[in-house]
Amino acid sequence: MVIDPDTLVSYVIGTLSPDEERQVEAWLRDHPEEERRLLEEQEALASMALQLPPAPVTPPSFQDVLSHVKAKEPVPFTPKPNRSRLVPALAFAAVVAGLLVIGVPLTPPYQEWRVQQNIARYANLPGAVSRPLMSAKGESMGMLVRLANGQVFASLKKRPADGRVYQAWEIKGGVPASLGVFGDRSFLSAATVAEGSTFGVTLEQPGGSDRPTSAPVAVTTL
Predict the structure, then answer these.
(1) Per the structure, how many domains does the chain have?
(2) What is the extent of the structural domain holding 136?
């Protein structure tokens, strides 16, 4: 199977077969940069879908209700077809295809249900181990999933404060090593993180820092 921009768009909008989806996901695991970019495009689709108006419902007539009540049957409500839904969906698919081709990442707002789907997607991979991310006060800050290949996927409950970014760290023997920065809630490491080390997240200035400049906002031991 050839993984091209059209295939990735089909994956985002959910038109691939289960076998094709598995092939795309295997390819994405071998291409973490593309996987991170695709996460943004999936969230863009989720954002657009949640902003669509609900489909209008055609109420049954009084006689229909009466006949179903007498027959002790549930009263059916038939949604009206909403052709306007198809237009933005197709337009979005075209935009995603164009951005994938020219390499421009999308930065849509995160939607909570999509975040949870992404966590579940990684947590359900073979060999994945999930751990809660906690603050120094013992508050739940999010979830970390360590994949079988050693990469980690982190999802925090809140976005960083305005003008700041999150920076992920692997801490071994008390020495922190940067895993990268991220400006939203989710992060997938390009590097592997050793079992037994500590994973932490700090708030930093845009671009990150060579060393943590603040106390960790979230931490866990692998």
Answers:
(1) 2
(2) 122-221
